[in-house]
């Protein structure tokens, strides 16, 4: 009772106590009634951390299966066979194709995205908000639908430059989003100071603005590069060979032979090289400012006579990235007429797609919860190591994850081969980082004092976590689930290799019809995928605005 007497009393019902006072009183109550050694910091480190950390460790170790599989296969195959499969002309050709694709497409995406971001965020370009949304909208169109649209419009479009063109229009929004967000958050006082010492607009941008965009450019470039390495359908349409297309071809012809596994090993190495280059280029410079900065927005630059030439850039980009797909899909729908709308087949594909997307998103979100919790409540070396494991494995192409699970199930757990469990596990491994990022942001906004107060009322750690933090993080969990679901709906290679017999998602149905050159029958599936994805893309755009306080 002495502990209760020492407490500052709660304000009476209907009193004037503020929310911070109530929260502090709850925390005081928790500290008073918890046993010795179970006060706030120790409670979070001794009781819930034990099982949550264990869950996070187990999930992280499980997520390393694809990487461990590649290493294990290389060891089992033997150095002589590995060297014969890796050091051959075909692998050199694929490596040259991949390097040229990345070295050409990524810089073009950088220039295009930075130019569009500056025009929509820093200039007086007419309709800037509309052009900003249209610069994000191409994310709603799967990359293989972009390729389908271009190859049906220009049948002779093949080879490296075709791959660069379609890759740029499909993936540049991954760079535009972070660059535009970074431009919104920059302190205008820095640019004013540079202009005050006599620097012209171009030199201010080059010496002040561009260096502050380095993190956004590096992160966006990494995303684009990883997507280029992982993409399959886009390059099959335009007949451009990459490691991913070669791996799928080898798998289909030899059913998971050593050649496919060694190509996967080279592809994983390329992914790690990209990650290393991004770390080196990013550097360790400080980008945060001390203080709140200038309490005003940057004045937009007047384009003057350059308005019309500058307007051409977003117009042409929109026509290439959105106009071509929508016009092509519409043309094939008109050509096919009502016959292409086979509602029974479309309804079945839509139902299976939504089921897999929701089930996979739910599993990925549940798996991400322990890691997200300890990243906020118990940061430290273990947390950083586990989080890095999840992000590294999440960067692996879907075909590598699928190939690993195929081998494991066939050799060790044959009853699990091509089952619903296996395909959902693949989705969870591939898209776990998407759920983790959203959950971590939401848990950070849930006060730990609420968990302490719930525990002080006699609830177990699990029930206290469920009734407070998990419920408060529900909006972030929903956003993460939506991002994962979008990725699952557009996933093709892993679904083809792992889905149970009889599975036919929207992406698989589209691929089957387009593979038979029946482009009219493929058009309804492309339209439905884009229609489902557009609202989520709009949410991403709105969220990027909110993060910048707009």
From TrEMBL:
Question: What is the native source organism of this protein?
Answer: Mesorhizobium wenxiniae
Residues of the ABC transmembrane type-1 domain:
95-281, 350-540
Of the GO CC terms on this record, one is:
plasma membrane
Pfam families noted in UniProt: BPD_transp_1 (PF00528)
Membrane in keyword set:
yes
Q: Please give the biological process terms from Gene Ontology that the record holds.
A: transmembrane transport
- Where's it found, cell-wise? Cell inner membrane; Cell membrane
Transmembrane stretches in the record are 51-74, 94-118, 130-151, 157-177, 213-238, 258-281, 306-334, 354-376, 388-410, 416-437, 469-489, 522-542
What family is reported? Answer: Belongs to the binding-protein-dependent transport system permease family.
Q: What is this protein called?
A: Iron ABC transporter permease
Topology versus the membrane? Multi-pass membrane protein
**Does the keyword Transmembrane helix feature in the UniProt annotation?**
yes
SUPFAM superfamilies in the record: MetI-like
């Amino acid at each position: 009772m002495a502990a209760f007497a020492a407490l500052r009393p709660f304000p009476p019902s209907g009193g004037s106590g503020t929310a911070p006072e109530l929260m502090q009183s709850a925390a005081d109550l928790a500290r008073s009634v918890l046993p010795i050694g179970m006060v706030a910091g120790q409670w979070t480190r001794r009781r819930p951390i034990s099982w949550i950390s264990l869950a996070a460790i187990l999930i992280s170790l499980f997520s390393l299966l694809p990487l461990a599989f590649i290493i294990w296969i290389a060891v089992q195959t033997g150095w002589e066979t590995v060297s014969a499969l890796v050091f051959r002309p075909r692998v050199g050709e694929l490596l040259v194709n991949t390097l040229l694709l990345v070295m050409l497409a990524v810089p073009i995406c950088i220039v295009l995205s930075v130019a569009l971001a500056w025009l929509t965020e820093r200039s007086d370009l007419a309709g800037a908000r509309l052009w900003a949304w249209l610069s994000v909208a191409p994310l709603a169109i799967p990359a293989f639908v972009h390729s389908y649209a271009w190859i049906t419009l220009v049948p002779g479009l093949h080879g490296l430059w075709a791959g660069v063109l379609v890759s740029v229009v499909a993936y540049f929004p991954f760079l535009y989003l972070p660059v535009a967000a970074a431009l919104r958050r920059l302190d205008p006082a820095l640019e004013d100071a540079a202009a005050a010492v006599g620097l012209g607009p171009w030199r201010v941008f080059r010496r002040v603005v561009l260096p502050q965009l380095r993190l956004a450019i590096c992160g966006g470039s990494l995303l684009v590069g990883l997507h280029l390495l992982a993409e399959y359908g886009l390059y099959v349409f335009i007949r451009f060979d990459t490691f991913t297309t070669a791996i799928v071809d080898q798998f289909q012809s030899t059913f998971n032979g050593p050649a496919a596994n060694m190509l996967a090993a080279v592809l994983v190495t390329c992914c790690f090289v990209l990650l290393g280059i991004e770390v080196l280029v990013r550097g360790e410079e400080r980008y945060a400012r001390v203080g709140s900065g200038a309490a005003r927005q940057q004045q937009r630059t007047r384009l003057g006579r350059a308005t019309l030439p500058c307007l051409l850039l977003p117009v042409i980009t929109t026509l290439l990235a959105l106009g071509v797909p929508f016009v092509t899909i519409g043309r094939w729908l008109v050509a096919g007429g009502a016959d292409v709308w086979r509602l029974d087949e479309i309804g079945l594909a839509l139902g299976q797609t939504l089921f897999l997307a929701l089930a996979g998103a739910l599993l990925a979100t549940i798996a991400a919860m322990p890691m997200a919790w300890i990243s906020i409540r118990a940061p430290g070396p273990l947390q950083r190591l586990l989080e890095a494991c999840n992000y590294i494995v999440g960067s692996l192409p879907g075909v590598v994850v699928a190939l690993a699970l195929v081998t494991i199930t066939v050799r060790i757990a044959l009853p699990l081969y091509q089952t619903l469990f296996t395909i959902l596990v693949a989705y969870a491994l591939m898209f776990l980082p998407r759920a983790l990022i959203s959950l971590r942001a939401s848990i950070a906004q849930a006060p730990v004092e609420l968990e302490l107060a719930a525990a002080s009322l006699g609830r177990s750690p699990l029930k206290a976590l469920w009734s407070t933090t998990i419920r408060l993080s529900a909006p972030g969990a929903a956003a993460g689930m939506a991002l994962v679901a979008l990725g699952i709906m557009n996933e093709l290679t892993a679904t083809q290799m792992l889905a149970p017999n009889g599975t036919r998602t929207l992406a698989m149905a589209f691929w089957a019809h387009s593979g038979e050159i029946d482009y009219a029958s493929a058009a309804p599936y492309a339209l439905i995928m884009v229609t489902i994805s557009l609202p989520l893309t709009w949410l991403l755009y709105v969220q990027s605005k909110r993060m910048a306080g707009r």
